[in-house]
Amino acid sequence: MKIFNTLEEIDNIEETVVALGNFDGVHKGHQQIILRTVKSAEAAGLKSAVFTFSNHPKNLMAGKTVVKNILYPEEKASIIEKLGVDYMFNIPFDESILTMDPIDFIEHLLLEKFHMRQAYCGFNYHFGYKASGTAETLMKEGMKRGFGIHIQEPFEIDGNLVSSTFIRKLIQNGQVDQCMKYMGRLYSIGGEVVVGNKLGRTIGFPTSNIMIDETMVTPPNGVYVTYCVYNGVRYPSITNVGVKPTIGTYHKNVETHIFNFDKELYGKMIRVEFLQKTRDEQKFESVEALSRQITDDCITARSFHRRIAGTY
């Protein structure tokens, strides 16, 4: 998949079938749009493309981060590539696009830049100045200009409209066990392992710590059954998200204990995949009481892992 990060990079490409949307979660609804795009492109002998933005439009309009990311940029690109897409137009949402007339958006971006012959989008797709362009706008212009438009109706699972907003709420409420159903993968947090206070090592539970990226949506403070992915291998683990109230004042971070693992990970990149929340973070009366609770938490997490993956 070829990724274009600016409009200036796009020059004289082949004709395309384009999936239109922010695709900030690449959830199952998004995946259906993209897969239909890929199949149509293959059938028509055209290139498949995804047109998305490298930043969330609402954040530009608000002048600050009001919508947090579900995926890291490289993660989003990787998922889209695995769906078979040829081109990814990963363009910054800036003032020129914010204020662009919807007809100019269609003419100068979709047709002139992307050489679009067909497009797929969700029923609630909006574009152009004050988001005044809609899926219906695309339908009308398509009839005039000779390009095809395919609109996906609301995509529901178990009566819930699948959307990035819905998935953010699941994560923020600690319902990480529901993410697989709607995203088709586990919710995860990644980062470089940093030096912590090393208390876990002294009480028999060494941990790998990664700092919270403030641009990413995160679950509430608590203890979670997790996998830790390092160097392409998934290890059963248990994770505390929080501020460690028993031992002092700390910024919120992600602290993971990997079962049956003795490698040093400082400075290494890991990804923590969340399976189930087991309890809220709490302040204990002593480190000894905390240690006893961690022992119980590990027993719970090991039991969970055995149920889902067999004995390890």
Automatic annotation (TrEMBL):
Catalytically driven reaction(s): FMN + ATP + H(+) = FAD + diphosphate; riboflavin + ATP = FMN + ADP + H(+)
The pathway where this protein functions is:
Cofactor biosynthesis; FMN biosynthesis; FMN from riboflavin (ATP route): step 1/1; Cofactor biosynthesis; FAD biosynthesis; FAD from FMN: step 1/1
Any idea which UniProt keywords this protein has?
Answer: ATP-binding, FAD, Flavoprotein, FMN, Kinase, Multifunctional enzyme, Nucleotide-binding, Nucleotidyltransferase, Transferase
Biological process per Gene Ontology, one example term = FMN biosynthetic process
Q: Which residues does the UniProt record annotate as the domain Riboflavin kinase?
A: 182-306
Q: SMART domains, from UniProt?
A: Flavokinase (SM00904)
MF terms per GO, please? ATP binding; FMN adenylyltransferase activity; riboflavin kinase activity
The EC number(s) attached to this protein equal: 2.7.1.26, 2.7.7.2
Pfam families assigned to the protein according to its UniProt record, in alphabetical order: FAD_syn, Flavokinase
Q: Which PANTHER family match?
A: RIBOFLAVIN KINASE, RIBOFLAVIN KINASE/FMN ADENYLYLTRANSFERASE
Query: Per the similarity annotation, which family is this?
Result: Belongs to the ribF family.
Q: What is this protein called?
A: Riboflavin biosynthesis protein
The top of its lineage is: Bacteria, Bacillati, Bacillota, Clostridia, Peptostreptococcales
